[in-house]
Amino acid sequence: MKKIINSPKSPKAIGPYSQAVEVNGTLYISGQLPVDVNTGKFVEGGIKEQTEQALKNIGYILEEAGYSFENVVKSTCLLSDISDFAAMNEVYARYYKTDCPARAAFAVKSLPMGALVEIETIAAK
């Protein structure tokens, strides 16, 4: 049975999708942009600040569903510029220190609202 997860600490979905869906002990988190829920805008700064905010938003959703970063099994990181990979990875590494999840990271032509990064996540218990 599927359960819709929404955290009030993360930005609301900007389209016809849920923040996350849990099915059979697996949590599928939609791509998270670097939006600060308090302002409704992207955080100030560059790729490091945006990556930090996207990961914070993921953390809030994980927490709402009863998961943690330790439960993450797969991440997909979308970058508007592949030259930002090293800086994004530096921030990402603070959240995943051991037993890191599988991951794909690639550049795309553009991201919603001009974001520099978007991260989607799958977690399992």
Please, could you describe this protein's structure?
This protein has 125 residues and is α+β, with helices and mostly antiparallel strands. It contains 2 helices and 8 strands. The strands form 2 sheets. A 6-stranded mixed beta sheet has the order 1-2-3-8-6-7, covered by helices on one side. The protein has a two-stranded antiparallel ribbon with strand order 4-5. α1 (47-65) runs parallel beside α2 (85-95).
Secondary structure elements and pairings:
Blueprint: E1 2-5, E2 20-23, E3 26-32, E4 35-36, E5 41-42, H1 47-65, E6 72-79, H2 85-95, E7 102-107, E8 117-124
Parallel strand pairs: 6-7
Antiparallel strand pairs: 1-2, 2-3, 3-8, 4-5, 6-8
Sheet with the most strands?
6 strands, mixed
Tally of strands: 8
Judged by helices, strands and strand pairing, the structural class is alpha+beta
The termini sit apart by 15 Å
Relative helix content: 10-25%
Shape: globular
Strand fraction equals 25-35%
Can I get a quick summary?
Helices cover 24% and strands 33% of the residues.
